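Hey, can you fold this one?
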Amino acid sequence: QVQLVESGGGLVQPGGSLRLSCAVSGFTPDHYAIGWFRQAPGKRREGVSCIHTDASTFHVASVKGRFSISRDNSKNTVTLQMNSLKPEETAVYYCALGNIPGCSDLSGEYESWGQGTQVTVAS
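Sure. Predicted structure:
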């Protein structure tokens, strides 16, 4: 069984930066994707970024150029660096693992989820 634990959320001013981490433990497939998703109150869960064990990455258009994703295999962590944050990006951010052949922004393709971390962008 896989466990995922997010950390690094908090309150940041518009234009600020936050770094989210996803710690992965337990049995993982040989090839898998780690996706970051976010869900604001009253809105659908949205795929934000993804990194696959084949080193491919994905970012939704609205965050390209501002967010970056990386992994540290020695620590089994995936980091989402978020820059130039906007108030509308206030949400609970989740990381998830999907036993899939490439990155995907579809939440239904991910089997294991963390509990989420709150990101609030406000002045």
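Residues 31 and 53 are 6 Å apart (CA to CA). Let me know if you want another pass with a different chain boundary.
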